[in-house]
Amino acid sequence: MRGNSAGCPLIGDLRPFVSIMQPHASQSWGPGQTTWQGLLAVALKTLIVDDEPIARKVLREELEQIDDIEVIGEAADGDSAVAAIRDSSPDLVFLDLQMPGLGGFDVIRKLQPGEHMPMIVIVTAWDQYAIQAFEAGAIDYLLKPIGQERLAQAVERAVKLSGRPAEIAQQLAKVKELAEAPSGHPVRRIVAKSGDEYLLLNADEVFAFEADGDLVWIVTAKKRYLATQSLKVIQEKLRNTNFRRIHRNALVNIDHVRKMSSMSSQRWLLTLANNQEFIVSKRQAHTVRQLLSW
């Protein structure tokens, strides 16, 4: 979007906001140089998405001064942005929220499980809803007009996050939760790993989480995926949802429970819709009793 009515340039002072990491006090910005530049063997492929040509031009000029950034393209609207992300697989996207037609959040909604997952830095003139929602630190957030130092901080964080696909997937999952939230209520997204790929699953797709030693498996109707976090962390994230702890090694989605069989006075066997069975521990037997008392 454009600068203010007084004709202020698009590059200027900026209030720092939500960040992936805390900035280093030693960071400095000189002509075409920062103290952290050159950390990467290969520069981050970067896409700029903004409907304003001047905004894209200024941001591109600033980014091209940074050694660890390679600007591979620009998109002037949401449809072009989605196509560019799918075709070019950028590592980093600077995404304007307010665009005619397909906006920034619409672009995020279009990203499907199994597709390339870039790091996303939101850029906007002002969006109170987004600011409140991003206070949890889901992604980096740049407020127009973008200051040089703040832009350098955003890139530094992207450099440090690069090469950690699990963290990037978690970041994008949070962004998608916000983008898909009806009336401000986030839709839970689950990050799943399959080989070298990271998928974003809807919570209602997940039947259960099952711990096996140091691994946690995500159980769906037909497939199993590796989780990226411990069962304890997953349970905390899914608090106040339809997932219930039934055993120290298992967390199930009660929406997919199809049969409950009594094994003893305090032991139960749960059968899910995909016919997978789970034993409920004595300690968690109250979970079954709650289901039976509907």
Shape: elongated
Helix content: 25-40%
Stretches where pLDDT is under 50 for at least 5 consecutive residues are: 1-35
Strand content: 25-35%
Which structural class fits the helix and strand makeup? alpha+beta
Whole-number mean pLDDT: 78
Number of strands: 17
CATH superfamily of the largest domain: Response regulator
Taken in chain order, the helices and strands follow as EEEHEHEHEHEHHEEEEEHEEEEEH
CATH architecture descriptor of the largest domain? 3-Layer(aba) Sandwich
N-C termini distance: 52 Å
Largest sheet: 7 strands, antiparallel
Question: How many structural domains does the protein architecture include?
Answer: 2
Can you tag this structure with a few keywords?
294 residues, alpha+beta, Rossmann fold, OB fold (Dihydrolipoamide Acetyltransferase, E2P), 2 domains, 7-stranded antiparallel β-sheet, 5-stranded parallel β-sheet, disordered N terminus
Compact summary:
The protein is of the alpha+beta class and 294 residues long.
Question: How would you characterize the overall build of this protein?
Answer:
By secondary structure, this protein is an alpha+beta fold. It is built from eight helices and 17 strands. It has two domains: 151 residues, 3-Layer(aba) Sandwich (Rossmann fold), CATH 3.40.50; 88 residues, Beta Barrel (OB fold (Dihydrolipoamide Acetyltransferase, E2P)), CATH 2.40.50. Helix 2 crosses helix 3 and helix 3 packs across helix 6.
